[in-house]
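Q: Could you predict the 3D structure of dITP/XTP pyrophosphatase?
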Amino acid sequence: MKELLVATTNQGKVHELEKLLESVTNVQLRSLKDLPDLAVAEEDGATFEANAIAKALHYCRLSGLPTIADDSGLVVDALGGRPGVHSSRYAPSDAERIAKLLREMEGTDWPQRSARFICAAAFAVPNPEVHIHTLTTGILEGYIALEAKGTFGFGYDPIFYVEALGCHLAEVPPEIKNTLSHRAQAIAKLLPAVTEYFRMTL
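A: Sure. Here are the predicted structure tokens for dITP/XTP pyrophosphatase:
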């Protein structure tokens, strides 16, 4: 069976991507948890796209497997775009990142609490030589809520209010989140290329 590497160790992201990629049949998904000896990719790009490309190329080169890598984060207008590409490193844990962001947003009126999740997804393939096959992006608009709510999802989901849903992103189950999230949008755009690649190589 052919294998597809999902370049992340984040279990929440792995589960999300497994659902989003379930239509790619006869392909076994692997994550970086399955390949612990691979050197970690540098994530020092100035944009989500640059980081996604760098990670996809790095892990495709080391593993020899077709690789999907994404870089995503939260862009908050009132904070000049922070945490942005540093979203996952803004503080040591999800709870601390949320607490830090809520502190920074104290006293900010609702209209100024606008924010968006952005995801860039890159698909790298090893043949004829390692290269980026496809790059896509997805965006989910919302607001930074006044407090955390919900138990679904991960990361900043508990404080991200989505007007179209009328609730926080962490208040909706994965099957709903996976119809509209920034990552769902990016992967949906990537899916035809991934499906076609494996159809041609099986």
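Q: Anything worth pointing out?
A: The domain at 2-201 is CATH 3.90.950.10 (Maf protein).
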